[in-house]
Amino acid sequence: MHLTRFRLNTVRSGARRLLSSPQAMHAAVMSSFPDVLPSDTDTPRVLWRVDRNAKAEVFLYMVSPAEPDLTHMVEQAGWPTQPKWQTYDYTPFLSRLTKGDTWAFRLTANPVHSIRRKADEPTKLTAHVTPRHQMGWLLQRQEAAGFRVMEKAPEQRRLPEGDEYQLVVHDRRGRTFDKSERESRGKKTVSLVTATFDGRLEVTDPKALRRTLTTGLGRAKAYGCGLMTLAPVG
Amino acid sequence: MSVLALLLAGPLQAWGASARFARRTTEHAPTKSGVIGLLAAAQGRERTADLADLAGLRFGVRVDQPGTRIRDYQTAKHFDTGKSMPVSERFYLADAVFVAAVEGDDTLIDDLHRAVQAPVYLPYLGRRSCPPARRVDIGVHRDQSLEQVLADQEWRAAGWYQRSRKRESTVPLTTFVDATPGDSRNDSVRDLPLSFDPLHRRYALRGVRTDTVDVPNPKARRSAPPDHNPTILLGGD
């Protein structure tokens, strides 16, 4: 597995086109692999995420089985005179994960649930929109995903309820974009609610966590959701 | 000893201490004479009544939202004779919020508390044309000093004002409290009411100590998300 980081030059129109449409970004990401074919869901796949750290510091992270070639992205949305992206070998780190480790993590996800409003209605996929429900969505999946979000010490909690975990939700956005850029095909609009989680976790099941890190968590993985990355606890 | 806290907020307020004749100025914060007048009116005392017990209360005020000073140019004609009255300038504080507090013995404070909840003459903020916009009474505090009550009260400024200072998680607020004999630095204002008799109003000098208290800002921006760089683990920067 490989982890790749690419910095976007946000003043270029190409970068703006990619950042405004997850559909376009997905196409650009997939174009960096000459050999990738559509595969079933339980094997490692290409995952990506955009981290907007500041207005002019926007990174694209990718986790992929093969090494990508981002030359076309550099030409459209990077700095062509200083072509730069870094690809790191991810496998040694993944195999080093052990139970009980603590890491800082970041995850951008599409938290949804299936509900019905009336008894005789078919269920419908519905987005979680409040930070509280979005946190609940992640906490519900943590066990199967191989980690546990760490709890806050009681004296650090700022609310009597709802502030039990070392977890923040930020960059919550609802986006709509067109699936097809061409008018002739008939525009299909996609709407998506995404949220970015930042927090600390403890590894409970290294194998499951490895699967989470390489196959993603939740839905809309083609649209920049589901990629979780780890960093040292700072 | 107990403390009665009052919330003085309204579209307009006017608190004159040195205002005379046709130029009616306002201080930047409520005056002791103004607040004592409000309490005496709530109790239903007449203008000529004795004020010694109220003037003996310790008084302090906190500036929660300073507001803007505005000037009004006012003309008037005499109702009977039609003669022009002197042109007067009136100054107001617009959109200001203050927390005022008086400290005294329990029975007097309880009596004042009841009076503020069911006032005989309606309270106004320094001038009859300035009604309060919110409930004036914000409670009695037992066994606490005046300074402590002013420091512990939550920030009462308007939501838009709190948001405008969202970069500050705690906000310093200015307080003006009655000086005690030991205070080295204080200002004196002719603001201690001796009589509100309309024929002969009398005020004595009052020492004022200026201080600040820090209160938390409920609208402060949440802390920024932490930096996250997964490449550190893999030998990157």
Automatic annotation (TrEMBL), chain A:
InterPro entries with a match to the protein in the record: CRISPR-assoc_prot_Cse3 (IPR010179)
Protein name per its UniProtKB record: CRISPR system Cascade subunit CasE
Organism: Spinactinospora alkalitolerans
Source lineage: Bacteria, Bacillati, Actinomycetota, Actinomycetes, Streptosporangiales
From TrEMBL, chain B:
GO molecular-function terms, A-Z: RNA binding
UniProt region (Disordered), positions on chain: 210-237
Keyword Signal set for record: yes
Gene3D superfamilies per record: 3.30.70.2660
Signal peptide (residue range): 1-16
Pfam families: Cas_Cas5d (PF09704)
InterPro entries attached to this UniProt entry: CRISPR-assoc_prot_Cas5 (IPR021124), CRISPR-assoc_prot_Cas5_N (IPR013422), CRISPR-assoc_prot_CasD (IPR010147)
The keyword tRNA processing appears for this protein: no
UniProt keyword list: Antiviral defense, Signal
Family matches, as CDD domains: Cas5_I-E
UniProt-listed GO biological process terms: defense response to virus; maintenance of CRISPR repeat elements
Listed name of the protein: CRISPR system Cascade subunit CasD
Natural source organism: Spinactinospora alkalitolerans
